[in-house]
């Protein structure tokens, strides 16, 4: 299969079957033999089109009398692929973008070939004349179209953040994030992994603050296929996620409960910091995700984890005041990881946000009961919405005078450059170069 055809199929799946971009891409790569160059091109086409979808659709609509909603999904996605290449990929000549889309239409939506050809050619002729909504008069709409975020989301961000901050955040949300690797020091030294990656022409940098973290600067393809990944010498995890286990700081021999633990990134990191000694109870509500925790633990050689299906909405009376430390890495809107999963922008609805905050507070409240006196509770999310973050912690503290907030910024200031406020940690992609991420640590009196 040719690269553009693969990208088309992935985009179609993401839309028609609500597949996740990273999972859909991985499936395609596993099922077909592609060169490294083709893989990179397919990834660029899929992510680029998704990141810029509202802009791309806006442009298509300027040239089509038919509403986009009425179009057949193959036709629409072929137009999107063509438009993305015309506007964003300088290395692809415009005529190639048109010809390839038209050729593919002959396979996937034969009757629309002329329609696609006409729209894309007209688009090329008028490429310089596209008018965005007026920035002064329609600021929210302008941001929504220019940076491809739904307008309700833009409005939400503008409620929380200043205008310039919001614009920069939206812009950076469309950039490709760097990959971070956690070296599994249970099995190997950081130096050995760095040497291995350099030998494979993968440019990496050691993180000056988290000794087991490595940033991939350039040259990666599929890290999951590397020998060192398969053998469990590394795990792929954003720097912000690695902060969680570092800040919770579990010690050898302790009992830790991780109430929302799949696929086990932070659980296995904690086990690593505990030198595989002690016990971690790793729970999640989804049965199928428990397998992921187990397979990650097996791969990484972690032996101290008990995996269990449990709904964090329920209170487990047997665990009350048993744990030294409890982690609540809560389900959230994911607004901090739009760079990794651009489809999040288009799948969330304003109403989703209300139900999620009640769930977060309930899970945190139940989890707090499991902490021993003098023990610690950590709450984290991968979102930048204050209602899911600072507000949850504030609401919790109002109802629990037996807990106090620990100032983790003294630690944080030295390890993540940028601007920080208050006792809790809030990271933003455009300020910190990490996922949008929140961490608060509480102590039981
Ligand atoms: C942010 S993810 C956790 C990521 C994980 N800590 C890691 O580092 O790999 C949130 C998890 O919460 C789980 N979850 C959602 N609702 C839950 C509930 N009511 N009780 C327990 N887990 C839940 C989801 O299945 C998801 O795996």
UniProtKB/TrEMBL annotation:
Subcellular location(s) per record: Cytoplasm
A GO CC annotation given for this chain: cytoplasm
Catalytic reaction equation(s): cytidine(967) in 16S rRNA + S-adenosyl-L-methionine = 5-methylcytidine(967) in 16S rRNA + S-adenosyl-L-homocysteine + H(+)
Keyword Nucleus recorded: no
Keyword Transferase: yes
Entry's Gene Ontology BP terms: regulation of DNA-templated transcription
Residues at the active site: 382 (nucleophile)
Function comment: Specifically methylates the cytosine at position 967 (m5C967) of 16S rRNA.
Protein's recorded name: 16S rRNA (cytosine(967)-C(5))-methyltransferase
Gene source species: Anaerovirgula multivorans
């Amino acid at each position: 299969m040719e690269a553009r055809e693969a990208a088309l199929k992935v985009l179609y799946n993401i839309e028609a079957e609500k597949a996740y971009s990273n999972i859909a891409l991985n499936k395609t790569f596993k099922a077909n033999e592609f060169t490294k160059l083709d893989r990179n091109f397919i990834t660029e086409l899929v992510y680029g089109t998704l990141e810029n979808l509202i802009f791309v659709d806006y442009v298509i609509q300027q040239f089509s009398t038919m509403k986009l909603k009425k179009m057949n999904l193959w036709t629409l996605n072929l137009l999107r692929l063509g438009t993305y290449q015309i506007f964003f990929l300088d290395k692809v000549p415009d005529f190639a973008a048109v010809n390839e889309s038209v050729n593919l239409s002959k396979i996937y939506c034969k009757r629309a070939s002329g329609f696609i050809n006409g729209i894309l050619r007209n688009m090329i002729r008028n490429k310089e004349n596209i008018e965005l909504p007026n920035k002064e008069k329609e600021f929210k709409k302008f941001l929504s179209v220019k940076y491809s975020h739904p307008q309700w989301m833009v409005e939400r961000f503008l409620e929380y953040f200043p205008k310039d901050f919001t614009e920069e955040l939206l812009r950076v949300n469309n950039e490709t994030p760097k990959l971070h690797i956690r070296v599994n020091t249970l099995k190997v030294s950081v130096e050995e992994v760095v040497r291995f990656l350099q030998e494979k022409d993968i440019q990496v940098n050691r993180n000056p603050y988290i000794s087991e973290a490595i940033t991939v600067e350039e040259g990666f393809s599929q890290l999951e296929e590397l020998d060192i990944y398969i053998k469990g010498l590394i795990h792929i995890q954003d720097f912000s996620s690695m902060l969680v286990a570092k800040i919770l700081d579990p010690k050898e021999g302790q009992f830790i409960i991780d109430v929302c633990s799949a696929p086990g990134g932070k659980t296995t990191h904690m086990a690593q910091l505990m030198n595989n000694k002690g016990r971690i109870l790793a729970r999640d509500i989804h049965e199928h995700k428990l397998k992921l925790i187990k397979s990650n633990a097996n791969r990484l050689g972690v032996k101290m984890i008990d995996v269990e299906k449990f709904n964090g909405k329920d209170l487990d009376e047997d665990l009350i005041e048993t744990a030294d430390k409890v982690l609540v890495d809560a389900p959230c809107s994911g607004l901090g990881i739009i760079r990794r999963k651009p489809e999040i922008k288009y799948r969330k609805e304003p109403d989703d946000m209300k139900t999620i905050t009640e769930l977060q507070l309930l899970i945190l409240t139940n989890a707090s009961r499991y902490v021993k006196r003098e023990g610690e509770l950590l709450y984290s999310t991968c979102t930048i919405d204050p209602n899911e973050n600072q507000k949850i912690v504030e609401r919790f503290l109002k109802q629990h005078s037996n807990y106090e907030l620990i100032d983790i910024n003294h630690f944080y200031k030295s390890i993540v450059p940028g601007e920080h406020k208050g006792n809790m940690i809030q990271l933003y992609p455009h300020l910190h170069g990490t996922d949008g991420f929140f961490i608060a640590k509480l102590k039981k009196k």
